[in-house]
């Protein structure tokens, strides 16, 4: 008995130590499309035509990612101005039609496929004018801008959204995509109000927060459930923008400081955007980055940028404007050649996807039971 007990204890330890990544997959970007205006005209593309100007996911592509590639995480973008039309303002009043379309995508991923989702308001902490994102729109909570939505409205929005999804264990709340050019104090105030509203609504799932300057600012946020992860975006080109073909920045070197900070402050992180171009020059940068996240227990998840039904032959990252396609299965490059789904995702990223991921239980910074989904990986 003693013998089998210690075997069991050893097995438990091994699975714990190996499974630092619980959630891994891709960002689904397209729900935020269709609002860009060359003349920065507010209201362009709003509310937009679903399936024409924007869409959330292609269910066939989700099937490929889950059934063949064994991905268990999707970060699904949407626009606050579509969920909460400017006529009624940011808050608890949703456009029910738009919500139903979003919920259909979220429920397909979580309930039909059994994967996890990060809800992603892709708004840069701005609301009311996405016509030239990321620069346009009033900063949420800017008290000297009479047109700005307030911190209280942001909290009402999150309380409502979290309340609607509180029964879905496979949901993660990504409070805001890339707040920038605003005070860190205001980001914190908005996030704190949102997390208070989320917990008040009875939602217990994991949430993630992104800090414009450094992760350290987020240390002051109080979540009564401590179910919190820091959201990090990390591109591997020279200026970290994810726009260039050439890889130039080492993920492990760039992340070293933040990893030390996470460790010292007992925080975990999800890298919800990262990427690099196709071709051998970037291959080691990508594998170094993914292996680094796998071997440092501070990282619990990652999502590559980006798949999504509306990219067409455009590249979501790292192409210097070339049309090399996106990470969307079934997409092609502009010249009809293989897209980044084949040249980057299948070739570089998917082979490094952890074999065992979490497939059940509430989304948690502590992870959950991990297991291998489906059969053997086709490419390894
Ligand atoms: C709500 O969303 C639907 C679907 O996109 C759209 O047809 C409708 O115009 C929207 N309503 C408002 C007030 O934006
Ligand atoms: C807040 O609003 C004021 C007035 O419109 C503007 O001058 C300021 O730049 C805004 N602050 C931010 C962070 O956008
Ligand atoms: C959250 O973390 C704080 C600080 O470490 C601790 O005092 C508190 O008991 C934790 N709460 C829960 C619910 O784990
Ligand atoms: C890295 O970036 C610098 C500055 O943009 C450039 O001069 C250099 O050629 C780049 N190196 C590689 C390997 O792409
Ligand atoms: C990247 O993919 C595109 C589209 O298939 C292709 O034209 C290009 O040659 C590839 N680049 C490299 C360096 O392999
Ligand atoms: C969804 O993906 C499938 C498979 O790649 C493709 O045939 C179909 O046209 C896509 N649907 C939309 C609406 O993009």
Write the layout of secondary structure elements.
Layout: H1 2-18, E1 23-28, H2 59-68, E2 73-78, H3 80-83, H4 96-112, E3 116-121, E4 126-127, E5 138-139, H5 151-165, E6 171-174, H6 184-200, E7 207-209, E8 228-235, H7 251-264, E9 269-275, H8 280-295, E10 299-307, H9 340-349, E11 356-358, E12 370-372
Parallel strand pairs: 1-2, 1-10, 2-3, 3-6, 6-7, 7-8, 8-9, 9-10
Antiparallel strand pairs: 4-5, 11-12
One 2-acetamido-2-deoxy-beta-D-glucopyranose binds at residues 47, 50, 85, 87, 95, 97-98.
Enzyme class: hydrolase
GO molecular function: cellulase activity
Domain Glycoside hydrolase family: 44-308
Q: What do you see in this structure?
A:
The chain is an alpha/beta fold and 380 residues long. It has a single domain, classed as Glycosidases (TIM Barrel). The chain is 32% helix and 16% strand. It has 9 helices and 12 strands. An 8-stranded parallel barrel has the order 1-2-3-6-7-8-9-10. It has a two-stranded antiparallel ribbon with strand order 4-5. The chain has a two-stranded antiparallel ribbon with strand order 11-12. Strand 9 (269-275), helix 8 (280-295) and strand 10 form a beta-alpha-beta unit. The longest helix is centred in the N-terminal third of the chain and has 17 residues, at 2-18. The protein starts with a helix and ends in an 8-residue tail after the last strand. 49% of the residues are buried. The model is unreliable at 1-17 and 375-380 (pLDDT under 50). Bound molecules: 2-acetamido-2-deoxy-beta-D-glucopyranose (6 copies).
């Amino acid at each position: 008995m003693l013998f089998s007990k210690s075997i069991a204890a050893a097995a438990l330890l091994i699975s714990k130590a190996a499974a630092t990544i619980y959630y891994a997959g891709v960002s689904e970007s397209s729900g935020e499309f269709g609002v860009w205006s060359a003349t920065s005209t507010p209201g362009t593309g709003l509310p937009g035509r679903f399936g024409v100007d924007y869409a959330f996911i292609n269910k066939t592509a989700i099937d490929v990612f889950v059934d063949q590639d064994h991905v268990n995480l999707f970060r699904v973008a949407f626009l606050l101005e579509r969920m909460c039309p400017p006529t009624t303002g940011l808050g608890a009043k949703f456009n029910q039609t738009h919500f139903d379309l979003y919920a259909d995508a979220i429920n397909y991923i979580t309930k039909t496929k059994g994967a996890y989702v990060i809800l992603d308001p892709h708004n840069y902490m701005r609301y009311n004018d996405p016509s030239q994102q990321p620069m346009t729109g009033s900063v949420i909570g800017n008290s000297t801008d009479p047109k700005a939505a307030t911190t209280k409205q942001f909290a009402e929005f999150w309380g409502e959204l979290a309340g609607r999804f509180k029964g879905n264990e496979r949901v993660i709340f990504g409070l805001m995509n890339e707040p920038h050019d605003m005070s860190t104090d205001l980001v914190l105030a908005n996030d704190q109000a949102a997390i208070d509203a989320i917990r008040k609504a009875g939602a217990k799932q994991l949430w993630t927060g992104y800090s414009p300057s450094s992760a350290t600012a987020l240390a002051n946020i109080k979540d009564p459930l401590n179910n919190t992860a820091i959201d990090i975006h990390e591109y591997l080109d020279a200026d970290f923008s994810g726009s260039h073909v050439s890889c130039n920045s080492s993920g492990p070197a760039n992340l070293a400081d933040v990893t030390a900070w996470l460790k010292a402050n007992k925080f975990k992180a999800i890298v919800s955007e990262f990427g690099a171009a196709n071709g051998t020059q970037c291959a080691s940068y990508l594998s170094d980055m993914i292996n680094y996240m796998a071997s440092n227990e501070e990282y619990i998840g990652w999502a590559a940028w980006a798949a999504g039904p509306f990219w067409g032959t455009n590249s979501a990252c790292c192409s210097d404007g070339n049309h090399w396609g996106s990470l969307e299965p079934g997409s092609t490059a502009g010249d009809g050649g293989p897209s980044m789904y084949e040249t980057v995702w299948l070739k570089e990223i998917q082979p490094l996807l952890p074999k065992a991921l979490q497939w059940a239980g509430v989304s948690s910074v502590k992870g959950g039971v991990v297991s291998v989904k489906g059969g053997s990986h086709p490419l390894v």
